[in-house]
TrEMBL record, chain A:
It is found in: Bacterial flagellum basal body. It holds the Pfam family Flg_bb_rod. Coiled coil: none annotated. Residues 233-275 form the Flagellar basal-body/hook protein C-terminal domain. It comes from Jeotgalibacillus marinus. PANTHER family: FLAGELLAR BASAL-BODY ROD PROTEIN FLGG, FLAGELLAR PROTEIN. This is Flagellar hook-basal body protein. Residues 7-35 form the Flagellar basal body rod protein N-terminal domain. Keywords: Bacterial flagellum, Cell projection, Cilium, Flagellum. The lineage of its organism: Bacteria, Bacillati, Bacillota, Bacilli, Bacillales. Belongs to the flagella basal body rod proteins family.
UniProtKB/TrEMBL annotation, chain B:
Residues 5-35 form the Flagellar basal body rod protein N-terminal domain. This is Flagellar hook-basal body protein. Its main location: other. The lineage of its organism: Bacteria, Bacillati, Bacillota, Bacilli, Bacillales. Belongs to the flagella basal body rod proteins family. It comes from Jeotgalibacillus marinus. Transmembrane segments: none annotated. It is found in: Bacterial flagellum basal body. Keywords: Bacterial flagellum, Cell projection, Cilium, Flagellum. Residues 230-272 form the Flagellar basal-body/hook protein C-terminal domain. SUPFAM superfamilies: Flagellar hook protein flgE.
């Protein structure tokens, strides 16, 4: 009886989630290095009804009628498109100019364990770790890693910070030149990555179950490959959220929501008609 | 006695079915590659009415003959006979994803029997080894690097093999060739059906060819024109304004049937409470 009500309700719940995804994109329109998510829909499974056995009338379609049950979000994809670069003239701001390349960051977990995550937000800082050494950290205070997965420590106080076109950070402290290769990876299958807090991407926990090695999912940019690193010093990569598209999608979702609410109220009125029969 | 009582009820059930179908279309107004379903209603098979009567022949003793004069044909209801997907090209919309593809078809030859144009589809591998078809080109790369649908069905190339790619950095030419760093690695499989109405809609964007039917490769067909557009998705071909109109229409038809049912109810009420009354 209330089949259409259920169909509409199923879809309304999913539209709500699409709305959440769009809202999150809009909220991050000013977040550096942010990559927008795009949700797409698919129809739910259909049910076949053999509503007239022995139906011998001419027909175009196979026997029975097939009724759908609404729609659901099929996937939410990470859009890896390049964001625009904003000049900041700050020597510790780095913007990527190549898609799918990420910095490696060491995250301290709640129970003391450490995990490697990936970010494109390149606003870095030096934090003192003792009287004469400084460590390179990102905006969240998490340590950046070099190409060999070690934290980056310089003798301080540092000045004259320079980035080479192969992603090597050169600093001098008291006239002594020091350099380190910033750890950069090229993530080959961004859709496999998990989005975690603060704009970080992390490897999925079930990678082994999937039968995949981390090396297949991402390429370490080392040796010859460092020539392909696209990093610009003194700039920050802006969010790649396109507000026009986001708002268009928002309007579309809202109207779909209205249409389906109308379908529910019609279904309710139909139930009212049945109740009013006697 | 009151034959139309159940006729009106079947009318309500059929209109209920129609609203179910239209609500599903409305739900999928945003689903890539979705084809709107259309309903066709059919009257219950005819039945021939005749009245039981007798005719008196004025003879000496008075002769009575039984006869049954024919009254005419009557249909005692309606039901939804078919749900027919509307196989027309949907609009295409840019998405920026290299793993999104839209099939854009030109003129298709008309089927000699049905008079309707043919249709082309992407080919997918079902876990049981058989093939499925879809118009939803919203693909992705799985952990192993195979091109799959959002639900993990492998997308097949024109030779029926899975498509394996290193990363999402690849180009698809308009004739379906997947190019990685300047070399052809595969060609997206596209199947042609000259009678798409015979396909079974399984939902989730999947269509199944009838048992034993193998659809031909669309690239080998000479008289059809189409192209594969990378970075685009074919939108649903549901027209929301029309669907809403049809929904209102179905609702009112439901209401009309309910009113007829009430009229019958009053007739029955009269029969029960007044016709048989003694005083």
């Amino acid at each position: 009886m209330t089949r259409n009500m259920v169909t509409a309700t199923n879809t309304l719940g999913q539209l709500q989630q699409q709305l959440d995804i769009i809202s999150n994109n809009i909220a991050n329109v000013d977040t550096i290095g942010y990559k927008q998510s795009t949700a797409t829909f698919t129809s739910l499974l259909t049910q076949e009804f053999q509503n007239q056995r022995g139906d011998d009338a001419d027909r175009q379609t196979p026997l029975g009628i097939r009724m759908g049950n609404g729609a659901k979000i099929a996937q939410s994809q990470l859009n890896g498109k390049q964001g625009s670069l904003q000049g900041t003239d700050r020597s510790l701001d780095f913007g990527f100019t190549a898609e799918n390349q990420y910095f490696k960051v060491l995250i301290q977990g709640a129970n003391g364990d450490q995990e490697q995550n990936f970010t494109r937000a390149g606003a870095f800082y030096f934090t003192p770790i003792n009287d004469d050494e400084v460590m390179l950290v990102d905006g969240q205070g998490n340590a950046l890693l070099n190409q060999n997965d070690e934290i980056i420590v310089f003798d301080g106080p540092v000045d004259n910070i320079r980035l080479t076109n192969t992603g090597t950070l050169q600093v001098s402290a008291n006239g002594v030149q020091q350099e380190v290769d910033l750890g950069v990876v090229n993530i080959q299958r961004p859709q496999l990555m998990e989005r975690v807090a603060s704009g970080y991407l992390s490897m999925p926990n079930n990678l082994e179950e999937l039968g995949v090695f981390p090396g297949e999912v991402m390429v370490q940019m080392e040796g010859e490959l460092r020539q392909q690193i696209g990093l610009e010093q003194g700039t920050l990569e802006q969010s790649n959220v396109d507000l026009t598209t986001a708002y268009t999608d928002l309007i579309e979702v809202q109207r779909n929501y209205q249409f389906l609410s109308r379908a529910i109220s019609m279904s309710d009125q139909m139930a009212g008609l049945v109740n009013g029969m006697r | 006695m009151f034959r139309g009582f159940y006729t009106a009820a079947t009318g309500m059930i059929a209109q209920q079915r129609r609203t179910d179908l239209l609500t599903n279309n409305m739900s999928n107004v945003n689903t890539p590659g979705f084809k709107a379903d259309q309903s066709s209603m059919r009257a219950f098979p005819d039945m021939l009415l005749s009245s039981l009567g007798e005719s008196k022949i004025p003879t000496e003793k008075g002769l009575t003959l039984a006869n049954m004069p024919t009254v005419g044909a009557l249909n005692t209801g309606v039901y939804m006979q078919e749900t027919i997907p509307l196989f027309t090209q949907g609009d295409v919309r840019e998405t920026q994803f290299t793993t999104d593809m839209a099939l854009v078809q030109g003129d298709m030859p008309l089927n000699g029997e049905t008079g309707l144009p043919g249709m082309i589809f992407f080919t997918l591998e079902n876990p049981d080894g058989t093939n499925r078809l879809t118009r939803n080109g919203n693909f992705t790369l799985d952990a192993q690097g195979f091109l799959t649908t959002a639900n993990g069905y492998y997308v097949l190339d024109d030779a029926g093999n899975r498509i394996e790619l290193e990363s999402d950095q690849f180009q698809v030419s308009e004739d379906g060739r997947i190019v990685v760093d300047g070399t052809d690695v595969a060609r997206v499989g596209v199947a042609y059906s000259d009678d798409p109405q015979a396909l079974v809609n399984e939902g989730d964007g999947l269509l199944r060819a009838p048992d034993g039917v193998v659809l031909p490769n669309a690239y080998a067909q000479e008289d059809i024109a189409f192209r594969v557009n990378q970075g685009f998705l074919e939108q649903s071909n549901v027209d929301s304004a029309r669907t809403m109109t049809d929904l209102t229409n179905a609702y009112r038809a439901y209401e009309a049937n309910q009113t007829v049912l009430q009229a019958y109810d009053r007739s029955i009420e009269k029969t029960v409470n007044e016709v048989g009354r003694v005083n």
